[in-house]
Every structure is written in C-alpha cells, then in structure tokens.
Design a protein that fits this description.
The protein is an alpha/beta fold. It folds into three domains: 7-120, 3-Layer(aba) Sandwich (Rossmann fold); 145-380, tm_1862 like domain (pyruvate-formate lyase- activating enzyme), CATH 3.80.30.20; 386-444, Nucleic acid-binding proteins (OB fold (Dihydrolipoamide Acetyltransferase, E2P), Beta Barrel). Helix content is 34%, strand content 21%. The chain contains 13 helices and 19 strands. The protein has helices at residues 16-31, 55-71, 83-87, 89-95, 111-120, 169-173, 181-193, 218-229, 248-256, 273-279, 285-298, 317-330, 357-380; strands at residues 7-12, 35-36, 45-50, 77-82, 101-102, 145-148, 151-155, 157-158, 177-178, 198-202, 235-238, 263-265, 303-310, 334-339, 386-395, 400-404, 416-419, 427-435, 440-444. A hairpin with a 2-residue loop joins β6 and β7 (151-155).
C-alpha cells in the first residue's frame, strides 16, 4: 500500500482522558492540512498515545509500539505520545529503537514542530528532546472532547495537585490546570449540535475544578452554567470525584436536575485508617458514611461506583478485613479492585512491595466475589421494572439492541441488552426481564413522547 505524504494514524491506549487528547491531536493535525487515515499501514505518521499509569498499561504500550516499529515501512515515522513518553523518555527509546519522535502530556501542540522536524531531517541517530513544560497547556479553541457514537467525554481539567502515595499522575501530568469555563461551554454546545446524548465530564478529579483559578466549588459553578445551555443533552455524568469534596451545593444540583445523572464515581481506595494514612488519602470514614447515607435519602436512585487498592505495603489481613466489612456495609453499585504495584518516583515506592502477588490476587478475588453478590442483588431489584436506555448498537438480524441505562458509565460498567428495534442514539424505555451481575436483559417499549 502506497504511503500518502501528510497522512497520520492515531491509536489510543489507556483512559478516557487519553481519548480526548488523541481527539485534540487529530484536530491540530487536520487544521494544518494533515489527513487522518484508518490504518497504520497507510499512514506517513503513526502516533501511539500511550498510558504509563500502572505496570500493565506500560507493558501494553511498549508491546504496541514494538509491534508497529517492526511493521514500519520505508518513509513511515513512529511517534510515541502521552504518559509513557512523558515519564520514561530514555527507557522507552531503549525498549523500542524504532521510535522516530516523542511528545509528552503537557502541551499537545508539540506535535506540530515535531512533524516539521521529521520532515526536514534524515538523521535517525538523534531524536529531538521532549520540550519541558511545568504545567499542562490548554489551547483555547481546540476541542477538549472525544465522541463515541452518541456519547462523549468532555475534559474540564487535567493534572493533579494532590499527593497520594501510590499515584504517578502528578509526575506525569503536573499540577491541576482547569480549562476556561467559556471553552468547556463552547465544547458542550458543539457536542449538542452533533446530536450527542450523553456528556461525561472528566478530569483527574472533577470536584477540584477551578481551585487553581481561585474558585471554590467551581464544579457547581460550571454545572449551573452548563446544564441550562445544553437542554437537548439529556445525560450529563460526573466521573472521578474526591472524598470530602462533594459539596452540599453539588448534591443539591444532582438531586434537582434531570440532566445531571444520579451517579457518583468516588474512588475511595481503602477503608482502614492506617492504610489510608499510608496512602496519603482522606481518612474520614464517617464523612463517607454520612454523605452517602444523606445522598441516598435525598436521591433514592443514586448509583455509586468506587475503586479500591488491595495489597498496599502496610495492609495486614486485619486491615483487609476492615475493607471487606466496609464494602459489605456500604453496598456500592459498582466496584473496581486493583492490586498494588510500586510506581517509580512515588512515595509508596520507598515502602517496597512486601505482600506477595498471590496474596494480593487472593484479596482482590475475595473482594470482587463479595461485590459480585452485592451487584447481582442490586440489579435484581430492577426485574419487571422499566429503565430508560441509550441505544449504542443494534443487531437487526436478531432483533436486539445494546445500550446503557443511567446506572452504567461507558466502558467500565454494565449493559442493557433488549429485544426491539431502534437506531443508535435513541433513548427508549426497556422492561427488564433478567438481571445478572453486570448486565440487564429486557424488552424495548415504545418511546415516551417528550
């Protein structure tokens, strides 16, 4: 296949924030005349937006880069972007000799001078260094969203000013940088014009939005301006909130707004005070219990997702039992569980990794088994009831629809599979017939007129 000059292909690894960054890179390149193509084999520039957050993500990123480097044709250039190149520049060049250029996470517009450099030089021995940027730079007017069907991610901030002992994000992204409210609103209006039905607001911590601008409770300010400006977007979801920063005003908005989904993603990481102290995380379990109890009273349909880390260096069996008891008590709707791995340059790295992988996996399995029963019971409540579904896929041959209810965030939670006919992007009621641990099965009903 002939390589057309000025063409590019982007593959994205990792989280939703990376998807947004890849979308921004594509906009930058197309604006200056480059042409996106659908396959790496036909692109002059192959860009891999890597993830360097945890060991498995780093391994996957290196694997993809090596594979593309082996398959690279004469005249093609391989560019590593994102977290892994920001954090491990020298090591990555050693692991993947076929890389022709790199950009980091702090200023995506670095891709433009890099491509100019690669066009003008034939020297393969010296790669340009990634420019050093202390903070993330958002370009006004550059879209900060990624669209998947009728759902989207909209980035409102990036970076993090917290110092959790296990987390490498501050070293990768730098401190918190919030986008201008005007730019977020412009993006939301653009998404509404595209017919998007769901906007997922994302950041390392959406509840920290505006702190770097001197704004207290900036997320609530943003939502009060955002929600009425996009009346044709029925679902707005918050992803990644921080314990202790879910304000009363934010709860009021969630309780009163039909658009702001009653869905709280609040990564708690653990429940034992000693482990949380070592993690440098909030230790006020009473705040968690009281806030969630109050929210469940005020918002009966509330869904809560959280994540936990097991096998942290100081976690004893007693500490883990405290976590199990807490999960049993709180009855979360969705739980993700990760095993600890020491990340280079983090405070937790100095604690070592004394807990064996087999013990970590056993604890993860025990917690997930507990949660499986909770999630199943939660889902079975909806048997014979009706939930609205955002249709995301269809199988006309088998008369099936695939989508999600408000209870399920894209990519991480469950699905609804329903008998019926509709088009992707439609919202329609589904009567639930069968409930499993993650997914619901039912029959689509005629849409309710708005």
């Amino acid at each position: 296949m002939k390589i057309a000059p000025g063409t590019f292909f982007i593959t994205t690894l990792g989280c939703a924030k990376n998807q947004v960054d890849s979308s921004s890179i594509e906009s930058l390149l197309t604006r200056q005349g480059s042409i996106p193509v659908n396959t790496a084999s036909s692109a002059e520039y192959i860009i891999v937006n890597t993830c360097g957050f945890i060991h498995d993500a780093r391994t996957e990123s290196v694997h993809v880069l090596r594979k593309l480097a082996r398959q690279k044709k004469r005249g093609q250039k391989l560019i590593a972007a994102g977290c892994l190149s920001q954090r491990y520049q020298e090591a990555l060049l050693t692991q993947v000799p076929g890389i022709d250029g790199m950009i980091g996470t702090r200023d995506l517009s670095d891709i433009l001078p890099l491509l100019t450099y690669l066009r003008q030089t034939s020297d393969q021995t010296a790669l340009p260094a990634i420019p050093e940027h202390a903070r993330i730079r958002f370009l006004s007017g550059l879209p900060g969203y990624a669209v998947q069907g009728r759902s989207s991610y909209l980035k409102i901030a990036d970076g993090c000013r917290r110092s959790c002992a296990f987390c490498a994000i501050p070293g990768i992204k730098g401190t918190l940088v919030s986008r201008r409210k005007e730019d977020v609103l412009a993006d939301a209006l653009a998404l509404q014009a595209m017919g998007v039905r769901e906007i997922n607001l994302i950041a390392q911590d959406v509840t920290d939005y505006g702190q770097d601008l001197g704004v207290q409770d900036g997320l609530s300010d943003l939502l009060e301006a955002l929600l009425p400006s996009i009346p044709d977007v029925p679902w707005v979801r918050l992803l990644y909130t921080f314990p202790g920063y879910v304000s009363e005003r934010l709860i009021d908005l969630m309780a009163s707004s039909e658009q702001l989904l009653p869905y709280l993603d609040i990564p708690l990481q653990h429940a034992d005070p000693e482990v949380l102290r070592a993690m440098r995380r909030p230790m006020d379990g009473n705040w968690v219990r009281k806030t969630i109890a109050d929210m469940r009273i005020r918002i009966p349909e509330l869904v809560i997702r959280t994540t936990f880390i097991v096998g942290f260096p100081n976690e004893t069996q007693e500490h883990f039992n405290t976590l199990l008891d807490f999960a049993r008590e709180m009855q979360f709707d969705h739980v993700g569980v990760f095993t600890f791995s020491p990340e280079t340059g983090t405070p937790a790295e100095e604690m070592g990794d004394p807990i064996t992988q087999s013990v970590k996996e056993a604890r993860r399995e025990a917690l997930m088994t507990l949660q499986a029963g909770i999630s199943l019971r939660k889902n079975q409540i909806f048997k014979d009831k009706v939930l609205n579904m955002l249709v995301e896929g269809t199988d006309a041959e088998h008369n099936l629809l695939v989508g999600r209810s408000y209870r399920d965030a894209p990519e991480v939670d469950g699905l609804i599979i329903a008998e019926g006919k509709a088009e992707p992007g439609e919202m329609l009621p589904v009567r639930i017939k069968t409930a499993l641990q993650h997914d619901l099965f039912g029959e689509a009903l005629p849409p309710v007129a708005r």
